[in-house]
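Now read this:
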Amino acid sequence: MTDKTATPSEVGPGSDDSRIHHPGRLASRGFRCVAVALVGALALNGLLHVAAQGIRDTDALEMLAVGADGESVSPSDSHLPTGVALLTGAVAGSGNRIAPPSSLDGTLPRLAHRDGYRWPPSLSIRTMTDDPATTQAARPGSDSRIHRIGGLALIVLRWMGLVLVATLALVGFLYVTRGTAVQHVRGVGTNGAPLAPSDSQFPLGVALLTGTALSAGNSVELALNGDGTFPRLWEDLRSAKESIIIQSYYGAPGSVADTLREILLERAASGIRVFVLYDAFGTSRIPRAHLDAYRAAGVQVAPFRPLRVSTLHTIQNRSHVRAIIVDDRIGWTGGFGFDDKWLGDGHTNGSWRETNVRFEGPAVLQLEVAFASAWAEATGVLFTGRVRQQIQPDAVKAAGLLYASPTIGTTVAERFLAMSIAGARKTLYITNAYFAPDRNFTEFLTRAARRGVDVRILAAGPRTDIRIARLAARARYSTLLESGVRIYEWRPSSLHAKTFVVDGIWSTIGTMNFDNRSLALNEEVTLMVLDEALGSQMDSIFLADLEFATEIIAEEFDRRPWYGRVGEWATHLITRLL
């Protein structure tokens, strides 16, 4: 067999050999396609965002009362102030003086005159008419000029289109990658120091800056890992007499999902009202058969922010909320999901380390309002009705359920976290699965350490489920270590808890990660508790966890491989998207 030499006619620009010998051409085309798709997606995101901000397509809300009579609360009802406070965050109080209308006569004209404002004169509108004196007859050669003008107009329109697409793409990019805005916390007192959790005015400061009131009468019970969570949770769900509300971010097939389905179907068959709201992204692995079985049994099921082209501008704003409410009386939240990886003790056999919380009292109503807000968006139905305040005798000093939602400007989540770090005076113990702070919150932590606060962070270790988040966290380690912050990484399993405790008195347990996604982009909830006994318990749990963690030593960390540094630098560039 002899080799055949190809002639020039057999190897041409369109032949297979030509494509083989010019892989760069294919790569170039592929890159251009990806770039065009990305720019188009960002442009569509920007267009939808601008349209959503300018003209909101607000669906009509149907009012659904949660009381037994099914009637909405009227203005004359004694429950109206409480309902307004829960649904809007604005508390109606006494002691406010309102001037009568007669005292305001002439106020606006005086203000306008003071500010130098003058009402504009009437504007006359003229329309152009076909005036023979202003028109010109067509002259020879005008056709060529018309063609040239038309060609120039097309060029101008083309460039205007490119500029518009580029502008919308930029708007979309900036919207998707927006971050935190708070950089400093300063007190309004004479010394300018922020309020400490031990200060008597601290609960009021929290309420004013976050819109969440801290109240007495809440009993709080910590639930560690799957062993400390699911048996008690299943018991609460099976005991439901009136209603069950579930809002979930994550779920997957397995024994946990099967047990939940069994309980909900049985309760629905017994006449209990059951509502399930699931995030369309986080629970994408839940079998459709489960959802169909729920609906067939009368369970009201709805997805939150389905993944569609028309919702591209909110596709990155997920509901990371975990909320379970039984009979408007018992509330659950934390980092857990309905997946078998949460089963176990959090240390062995791949069991995830988790901290959840069960509570009763006024904070349950705040958790229910967080669900009502999301349910109204997903279904168009807004819950309202008479409120039942149930004060618990074995209560913590004060507690409140914080609901944080993404917005333009500073968010509730970042204001809460910033004032908590700035208020620390003695200790600040943070356990967080996805610890990837931006520059602002890195500086909050370093400033706390430099003023003498014992700042310790327990972050995810090598067994984390999202390695890119760990790389982003390690990009901040050197800065934090230099300031005196002590950092530990969890060894036995995947860490998923989201808690912190300040000065042994101010604690939080919930769904908020220490990253830009939780602070600026996602819907989150966390239970805030001001209580020394619970704070002491949180301190003990944190210090016990350190026995199963590896402390990061600055000298050893500086000797890590160069490729690790490159990975950290690369993930650091996309921290705002994590």
The two ends are 59 Å apart (CA to CA). DSSP finds 18 helices and 17 strands in the chain.
